[in-house]
Design goal:
This protein is an alpha+beta fold. It has a single domain, classed as 2-Layer Sandwich (Beta-Lactamase), CATH 3.30.450. It has 4 helices and 5 strands. The longest helix has 20 residues.
Length: 130
């Protein structure tokens, strides 16, 4: 899979997306894309630690798959950002960070629900859905 192309498609899908990262199931970064002009709130070390914690959470969710189905995404909202986490294939994850600014109303921009739906469509690899 072309991770950089995938991240570019996600970043291009909505101007509220600040940052996107693909990791393996241990939280190790495989690819990253950052919106120009946007400053990170966390240091590289803090980001790495956060990704590792999120990977542990996804492993725990996978244990429940036989009972509640496959996890589709998780959202963590903070005062300054919202982070969405999606499983990617069997062994990877994608993290998307949104700004907490007011929802944009211009073309190809939407609220949190629309962004989640669009990313799920991109990840489905179904060209009729993205």
């Amino acid at each position: 899979m072309d991770f950089m192309n995938l991240l570019k498609r996600i970043m291009d899908s909505d101007p509220n997306i600040r940052h996107s990262i693909i990791t393996d199931n241990e939280g190790n970064i495989l690819a990253t894309e950052h919106r120009p002009g946007v400053t990170n709130y966390l240091s590289q070390e803090e980001t790495a630690a956060s990704l590792k914690r999120a990977a542990i959470s996804w492993k725990a969710r996978k244990e429940l798959t036989p009972k509640i189905g496959k996890g589709l995404y998780a959202i963590a909202a903070f005062e300054k950002i919202t982070r969405m986490t999606f499983p990617l294939e069997e062994d990877n994850m994608i993290f998307v960070t949104l700004g907490s600014d007011e929802v944009r109303t211009d073309l190809h921009a939407g609220g949190q629900k629309q962004i989640v739906e669009h990313i799920l469509n991109i990840l489905s690899r179904d060209p009729t859905r993205s």
